[in-house]
Amino acid sequence: MDTKSDIREFLASRRAKITPQQAGLPAYGGNRRVPGLRREEVALLAGVSIDYYVRLERGHLAGASEEVLDGVANALRLDEAERGHLYDLARAVAERPARRTRRARGPLPDSVLRVLHSMTDSPAFIRNGRLDLLAVNRLGRALYAPLFTDTAPRPVNIARFQFLDPTGRDFFPDWDASVNTTVSLLRTEAGRAPHDSDLTGLIGELVTRSEEFRTAWAKHNVRLHHTGRKGFRHPAVGEITLDFDAMELPAQPGLTLTAYSAQPNTPAHDALQLLASWAATEDAAVTTDH
Q1: What is the pTM of this model?
Q2: What would you measure as the largest C-alpha separation in the chain, in angstroms?
């Protein structure tokens, strides 16, 4: 990935989303050649010269002060995820290899795995920034059973399954929202870790093999993914919609623990109990076979 190109395309895409009216600027008559703000309008709102903003949008963020980055973020009305991404891109273009962000490598600590597997009533997993499932508890493996086939590449990867596996579309009922989330998370991680060869390799594979991924990737959307609701179409229990909470592991940089839950006395809670029963049956079948 070319960080300067990412900066140029990200800023241009955000600029195209804002009209002069939304930015509080007067709308003069005549045809505008751009769908959103002009560069000179962003420069005015950010409090920098036109020449300097043009240089920033061409990818030259190295050396830009926090005040300048904040000014650009405010002018473009960036949300929290977009603002963080802008700062990540600025760091990426300025950093030398020795200063790259440390990412967790190697096996997960036993203490972390104990916590994961102690969550017996909630599907849960630990993933890295490129959406590899590094560890799952019993219910988590049951929920994501279609990903854990014998022929699936290891480590199991949510994005690869979603875009390249023939059953990926069936597993996620709200396909458009799911695709946007997956690609936005990968785009966010690419800003944080632009030198991660495993990440760039995955993105290159998906760009090459999936037109849907290419289309979504070109939008330069980013997002934070701390809490929300996600739907699944499970082959054994049918459609199930669960709440999720995602917690970063401070002692394991780049890793996130995600847990699903359901309100008691709801269809989702009933489906979760059915999932647990199915998982127990599957475990018993495996034990019998061995």
Answers
A1: 0.91
A2: 77
